[in-house]
Amino acid sequence: MASLVTEKSTSANPKDERPEKFKGLDFKRWQQKMLFWLTTMNLANIVKEEVPKSDEDPLSRETLLTIEAWRNSDFLCRNYILNRLDDTLYDVYSECKTAKDVWDLLEKKYRIKMQGAKKFVVGKFLKYNMVDSKSVVKQVEELQVLIHELHAEGCIINDY
After folding, report:
1. Per-residue CA distances from 52 to 2, 31, 101, 158 (Å)
2. Is the entire prediction scored with pTM above 0.70?
3. pLDDT band for position 1 (50/70/90)?
4. Contact, 152 vs 159, CB < 8 A?
5. All structural domains of the chain with their residue ranges
6. 75-125, pLDDT tens digit by residue?
7. At residue 66, what are phi and psi to the nearest 5 degrees?
């Protein structure tokens, strides 16, 4: 009798562990997964660094090699990021020249949306009122949901 148990293969190749495509929602989660993935490929620094420049004239061989290595890493990083975007977002961000440009523009656009969501949740919490027409247990459950939403947005509520 054949065994029905299958083994789950664990991949040592970081390219196999890529994050899901970003469709415009849950940017923070996608960004963290993407940064981890880029880190496993030694490319995370590329989204933070500017194009290397030098005042040397003419450029030394070492400087030329450094710039060429950066360009190669930037090419890979930029395309890894673009390929983890939904097609509609890919079309918008593919015009960016460097991985840092793509990363910064995504962060600028979607961090602002995240801040709006945070303000919305904080507003709901601050406006919450207990009423006599509902049971206390039901209202405590609603309050717990609001507190959980606040925690999900990174807000901390002191116990005092």
Report:
1. 59, 24, 14, 45
2. no
3. very low
4. no
5. 22-152
6. 999 999 999 999 999 999 999 999 999 999 999 888 766 566 777 778 888
7. -65, -45
Give helix 136-152 / helix 99-127 axis angle, nearest 10°: 160
Distance CA 121, CA 103 (A): 26
Residue with structure tokens 């496993």? 40
What are the tens digits of pLDDT across the range 40-78? 999 999 999 888 887 878 888 888 898 999 999 999 999
Token digits for 23? 């469709």
DSSP per-residue string spanning the chain: ------PPPPP--GGGGPPPPB-SS-HHHHHHHHHHHHHHTT-GGGGTPPPP----SSPPHHHHHHHHHHHHHHHHHHHHHHHTB-HHHHHHHTT-SSHHHHHHHHHHHHHHHHHHHHHHHHHHHHH----TTS-HHHHHHHHHHHHHHHHHTT------
